[in-house]
Amino acid sequence: AQKVTQAQTEISVVEKEDVTLDCVYETRDTTYYLFWYKQPPSGELVFLIRRNSFDEQNEISGRYSWNFQKSTSSFNFTITASQVVDSAVYFCALSDLDTGRRALTFGSGTRLQVQP
Amino acid sequence: ETGVTQTPRHLVMGMTNKKSLKCEQHLGHNAMYWYKQSAKKPLELMFVYNFKEQTENNSVPSRFSPECPNSSHLFLHLHTLQPEDSALYLCASSQDALPGGSYNEQFFGPGTRLTVL
Predict the structure, then answer these.
(1) Which of A69, A84, A113, B22 is the 20 to 30 A CA-CA neighbour of A15?
(2) Which helix H or strand E contains A13, and what residues bound it?
(3) Cβ contact (<8 Å) for B105 and A97?
(4) pLDDT class for B103, splitting at 50, 70, 90?
């Protein structure tokens, strides 16, 4: 069975600090996708990134970067120079392609509070 | 309207009421999803529709009844709910949900906050 673990339930940082959100996943599939979503107080989940299991290159997008390590089944998310607008709940998610199931398995989320 | 919209945004209902949640996507997608987000629990998939056909029911109680009249609209009909059904119900859409195809990210609506008294 698939499982996504986000061990950090809540993180609080001061503006301009760097912060890393951890994500560890379990799957028996060889082909899968990993995602990060942001859920601001408004409730809507905002897509941030998708990573294919065959692509282990790290990715940077502005202040966001992602570190995918297949050897440790981790897909960590770092925000550099955090801002108050980054305050939200962040979800890591996994989908498998081998079984054909299209739904996402979500972690329990990490609530990030960025203090001014 | 753009993206995925959901109405109502908030709903309070008694256990004997019948109500419906509506989701509409304006993205030209073919797959739609219902998720349930309870306090302190991960998002749980409820149903998947692909090209108007239900392709997944994640052991959801029959008091939740989905309906997908076309690829743009998805409903969740509610009846005789329990207080533990209180949660945020999120709708999502993606290009398609075909096995073996390349995966497309899901776009979410803002959710309906449901409270069952």
Answers:
(1) A69
(2) strand A10-14
(3) no
(4) low
